[in-house]
């Protein structure tokens, strides 16, 4: 019995010495998962800290280390940069720049990332080198297909202008007021015109949030007296911020106050105290019909809407220290709703031979500036610089895929393979919006 007990005491010692000899012959590389005993045998604390530092410094090739849009250049193309949430709340206070799907992704990823693309960097370089003593410069963003990223490019440019202290005039989804205004009423300023007070008040609220810091520094004031009614008026020298507060309390005058602010900003831009950036989406809707009707069912023209008439003045080049960037797309083409009596039938055909015909309210033609702006819009904006927003390049769609992969957005295992990546590229046709929607479903 004593011999057996002695053998049991000796065996652990022999096994430990044998394992230690084996370790000394082939010492494994230290890693992040060493236990306290293993770390004392294999490595020192200093070696472990060095290894941790090396792992944390591995860069992501699809991310840009420069988050300031003023410093973006061609070396940062096709990469994602992070937009600070506080700045986004100022630039886009009501989440109108992008579609709902993208805002849902930002919330899911807990970060706002935009891709740096060639058209955005090109316009930023233009803005840096403009001679602002010349008439306003105008750029038109277009794409030969929908969903190529016109709005995200415009948001990138807005971010740059915000950082570079431009006074922002931002009108997102401008065709909405021409389809169905939230509220409309006859103008008190001129007979025959139509005021849209709620839409005008929303613009003024957005304008004040985006430019609050700059407006306080400039302390802009009116150059003449404005009469809103027989009893109410704003005297000469009224601060612009006070005008906006007055519009919030007296919403019925907000459309006329928009016109007053547009006039004052254009007039005082001659003083060279500030530079103005105008960003209007779907500007082709300003040169077509509307779906709004008067009480007598007659059609309302675009120039009869007070707020639209004032915004169209910003598109002219009769002022300086300004740059205008607009987008055109199929959604900006407004096709009037057909008459109920002739909605599905051609009345020129005899009744016996009539057949039900399809009718669509969606534009299905070419997406070039000549077709979308038509003759009136083309001459109104000329001269302008057209800039195409193309579909993704191979590098851009690869970086977008790697970004989704890093954020664990792709849950299907087949999508993580090389063949799955090629299939996603093929199914989306390298279209950014289609790629986003396909990846959301897997």
Automatic annotation (TrEMBL):
Which UniProt keyword terms apply here? Mitochondrion, Ribonucleoprotein, Ribosomal protein, Transit peptide
GO MF terms, alphabetically ordered: structural constituent of ribosome
Principal subcellular localization: mitochondrion
UniProt-listed GO biological process terms: apoptotic process
Q: Where in the cell is it found?
A: Mitochondrion
CC terms in the record's Gene Ontology section:
mitochondrial small ribosomal subunit
Q: InterPro entries attached here?
A: Ribosomal_mS29, Ribosomal_mS29_met
One Pfam family named in its UniProt record: DAP3
Domain of life from the UniProt record: Eukaryota
Family that this chain belongs to: Belongs to the mitochondrion-specific ribosomal protein mS29 family.
* Protein name per its UniProtKB record: Small ribosomal subunit protein mS29
Specify the species. Brachionus plicatilis
């Amino acid at each position: 019995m004593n011999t057996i007990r002695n053998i049991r005491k000796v065996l652990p010692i022999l096994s430990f010495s044998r394992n230690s000899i084996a370790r000394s012959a082939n010492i494994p590389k230290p890693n992040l998962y060493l236990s306290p005993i293993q770390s004392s045998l294999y490595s020192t604390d200093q070696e472990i800290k060095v290894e941790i530092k090396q792992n944390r410094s591995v860069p992501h090739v699809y991310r840009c280390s420069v988050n300031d849009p003023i410093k973006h250049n061609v070396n940062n193309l096709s990469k994602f940069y992070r937009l600070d949430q506080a700045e986004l709340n100022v630039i886009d206070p009501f989440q109108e720049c992008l579609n709902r799907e993208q805002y849902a992704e930002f919330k899911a990823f807990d970060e706002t990332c935009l891709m740096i693309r060639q058209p955005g960097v090109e316009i930023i370089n233009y803005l840096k080198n403009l001679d602002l003593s010349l008439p306003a410069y105008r750029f038109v963003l277009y794409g030969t297909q929908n969903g190529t990223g016109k709005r995200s490019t415009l948001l990138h440019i807005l971010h740059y202008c915000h950082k570079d202290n431009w006074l922002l005039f931002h009108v997102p989804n401008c065709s909405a007021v021409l389809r169905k205004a939230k509220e409309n009423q006859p103008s008190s300023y001129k007979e025959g015109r139509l005021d849209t007070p709620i839409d005008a008040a929303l613009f003024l609220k957005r304008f004040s949030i985006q430019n609050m810091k700059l407006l306080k520094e400039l302390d802009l004031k009116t150059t003449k007296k404005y009469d809103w009614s027989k009893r109410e008026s704003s005297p000469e020298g009224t601060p612009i911020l006070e005008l906006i507060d007055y519009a919030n309390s007296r919403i019925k005058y907000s459309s006329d106050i928009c016109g007053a602010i547009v006039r004052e900003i254009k007039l005082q831009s001659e003083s060279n105290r500030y530079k103005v950036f105008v960003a209007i989406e779907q500007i082709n809707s300003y040169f077509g019909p509307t779906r709004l009707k008067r009480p007598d069912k007659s059609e309302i023209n675009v120039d009869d809407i007070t707020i639209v008439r004032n915004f169209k003045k910003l598109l002219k080049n009769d002022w300086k220290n300004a740059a205008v960037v607009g987008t055109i797309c199929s959604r900006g083409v407004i096709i009037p709703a057909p008459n109920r009596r002739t909605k599905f039938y051609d009345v020129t055909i005899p009744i016996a031979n009539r057949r039900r015909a399809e009718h669509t309210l969606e534009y299905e033609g070419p997406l070039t500036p000549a077709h979308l702006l038509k003759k009136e819009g083309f001459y109104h904006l000329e001269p302008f610089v057209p800039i195409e927003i193309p579909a993704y390049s191979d590098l851009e769609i690869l970086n977008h895929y790697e970004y989704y992969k890093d954020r664990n957005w792709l849950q299907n295992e087949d999508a993580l393979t090389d063949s799955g990546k090629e299939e996603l590229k093929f199914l989306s046709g390298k279209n950014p919006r289609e790629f986003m929607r396909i990846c959301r479903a897997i």
